[in-house]
Specification:
It contains ten helices and 14 strands. The chain has helices spanning 6-18, 21-27, 32-46, 62-85, 102-110, 113-119, 171-176, 225-233, 243-251, 281-295; strands at 51-53, 58-60, 94-100, 123-129, 143-147, 156-163, 165-169, 190-193, 202-206, 211-215, 218-221, 238-242, 256-258, 267-273.
Length: 297
């Protein structure tokens, strides 16, 4: 296998990102003639044309797209390692990328993130919401807060808390539809849920005893609980929501509980990260900090 020049790879990724070799060369302070030679050298090393370039065309080839994904992943890891190793006086430095779901991430992080950032001021924190399923195996994030425990065999999964759930609906919706006194009564209703998978017009409700599967009049699905909440407030159906999200609406009587005696199984909220990176300083201090926070809650 031929050796790569890291500067050649970085130039290629910047050219792909900026849409041209000239802006990439300017950003990296490389003469344009040298940049052209670097790209040609990289293509010779790879053995494929990576970029279509001309007066009116600049685009990645199929091989270029494949190489770009691997190159960006490798450069991210190298940059992070260099930042970690450059810590001065024991201070934790580098960039910590946290992937979180919309609602749960904001609720969990925002109460505690300011104090964490104060404790570690040299750590650059990036939070991406709506990405709890980010691909940790391929550098999508350093750590993810997740609802559920998929991919547990490949990742370290640390439990943070359980999030209770409830069924609720707007009074206007319930006034127009048949009463709900037991689970079978749900079959005549519209359902709003964050459950991603399921057949058409089919829902599953997990109680502490068993999972109930049933057909209903219609199902709206979204991975964003706040969108489900808004539809519930608009009298669009019966919603399955986190208690913490629904409680203010229940207290204000804009939503009312449905089957309040039903003991629904709570969602597990976990932290996930790669086993090989468990001792990376930025990941270790983040995990330890938030585990301590929720243990003492």
């Amino acid at each position: 296998m031929k050796d790569f020049s890291l500067s050649d790879v970085r130039l290629f990724t910047k050219a792909a990102q900026l849409g041209g070799l000239t802006p990439a060369a300017e950003l990296l302070n490389v003469p344009k003639a040298s940049a052209s030679r670097q790209l040609q050298r990289l293509e010779a090393t790879v053995g494929h044309l990576l970029l279509h370039r001309g007066a009116t065309r600049f685009a990645l080839t199929e091989e270029g797209r494949e190489f770009l994904a691997a190159a960006q992943h490798a450069l991210t890891i190298l940059d992070d390692v260099m930042l970690d190793l450059s810590s001065e006086g024991g201070a934790v430095t580098g960039r910590l990328r946290i992937a979180v779901p919309h609602y749960y991430g904001r609720e969990l992080l925002m109460n505690h993130l300011p104090a964490f950032m104060t404790a570690y001021p040299r750590l650059e924190v990036t939070v991406e919401t709506g990405r709890d399923r980010a691909d940790l195996l391929h550098g999508g994030a350093d750590v993810a807060i997740r609802c559920g425990r998929e991919d547990g065999d490949e990742l370290v999964v640390r439990h943070l808390k359980q999030e209770p759930l409830m069924l609720c609906a707007a009074p206007a919706y319930l006034a127009r539809h048949a009463p709900v006194q037991n689970l079978p009564d749900l079959a005549a209703h519209r359902f709003l849920t964050t459950e991603a998978d399921g057949r058409k017009r089919e829902i599953s409700l997990a109680t502490v005893e068993k999972t109930h599967r049933m057909r209903v009049e219609s199902v709206f699905r979204s991975d964003d609980p706040e969108m489900v909440l808004r539809l519930a407030l608009s009298a669009r159906g019966i919603a399955l929501l986190p208690v913490s999200l629904a409680r203010p609406q229940i207290d204000g009587a804009t939503l009312v509980p449905v089957l309040p005696s039903l003991a629904l199984k709570p969602h597990d909220i976990d932290l996930s990260y790669l086993p090989a990176r468990r001792n990376t300083p930025k990941i270790k201090i983040f995990v330890d900090y938030f585990l301590d926070v929720f243990r003492s809650a």
